[in-house]
Amino acid sequence: MIKAEGVIVQSVARALDIIQCFSGNNVELGISEIADKMDLSKSTVYGLVNTLVSKGYLEQNHQSKKYRLGIKLFEFGNLVQNRMDLRNEAKPFCQLLSEKYKTTVHLAAHYRGEVIYIDKIDANDWVIAYSQVGKRAPMHCTGVGKAILAYAGEKYIEEFILKEPLKKITENTITEPENLLKELETVKKRGYAVDDEEIEVGIRCVAAPVFNYEKYPIAAISVSAPYRKLQDEIINEVAADVKYYALKISERMGYSDK
């Protein structure tokens, strides 16, 4: 067993323990059965179960009145599985990009307005600090984020990006909504995004989106390097390669442009 460090919130721990009761043959359980397994009172269990139901982690069978795992856990399971599959499929192509340009290549997914770095291949001679695997970053100031946003649709942008002021990270960060929307139009026209020192001073990125079989942008890949290594004269070449490999990854994820 892994021993946790720091504060443990008892109600959260109990709620997670309830979810774990549904294993093996325990597809459906009643309040009394859960209370027995947890060694808790029925009233305590009822409150926890009702909360989990309200959030979609459990659902009630209205015929048996018992509870079962909810659709929210299925969604999260698919999300994790897709990310694992995506990482495996993208790895060879990201490696080729990194070897060609001797730069860092990122693979990032997204969730509710943030990018999540799920893989990173660093060049041997230098490392980008801000993009550790598992770390999140704003979408509006990253190449991978803008590459995804350009195709994510107005509803996604309104719900997750423009509800709050756009945070300024560097002097080059886009903070005006109208300027961001204009930038995203440009990204969509040319098929790739450029981060010009918008999240880290001295770093430039070229990114392109990765689509799934529904033609939805599930991720993006980027080539990131010191500004001096990604001068304007080679941006078109780098962008062409990034777009090409992003398409190859998309095809591995079931995408077709037909």
Would you mind describing this structure in some detail?
Pfam families: HTH_IclR, IclR_C. It comes from Acidilutibacter cellobiosedens. This is Glycerol operon regulatory protein. Keywords: DNA-binding, Transcription, Transcription regulation. The protein has 258 residues and is α+β, with helices and mostly antiparallel strands. The protein folds into 2 domains: 10-69, Arc Repressor Mutant, subunit A, CATH 1.10.10; 75-252, GAF domain (Beta-Lactamase, 2-Layer Sandwich), CATH 3.30.450. The protein has helices at residues 10-21, 31-38, 42-54, 71-101, 143-152, 154-160, 177-190, 232-252, and strands at 58-60, 67-69, 104-111, 114-121, 136-138, 193-196, 203-211, 217-226. The protein has a 6-stranded antiparallel β-sheet with strand order 5-4-3-8-7-6. The chain has a two-stranded antiparallel ribbon with strand order 1-2. Strand 7 and strand 8 (217-226) form a beta hairpin. Helix 1 packs across helix 3, helix 2 packs across helix 3 (42-54) and helix 4 (71-101) crosses helix 8.
Q: How many strand elements?
A: 8
N/C terminus separation: 50 Å
Q: Give me the secondary-structure category.
A: alpha+beta
Oligomer: single chain
Please sum up the structure shown.
The protein has 258 residues and is α+β, with helices and mostly antiparallel strands.
List key phrases describing it.
single chain, 258 residues, alpha+beta, Arc Repressor Mutant, subunit A, Beta-Lactamase, 2 domains, six-stranded antiparallel β-sheet, two-stranded antiparallel ribbon, 8 helices, Glycerol operon regulatory protein, DNA-binding transcription factor activity, Tscrpt_reg_IclR_N, DNA binding
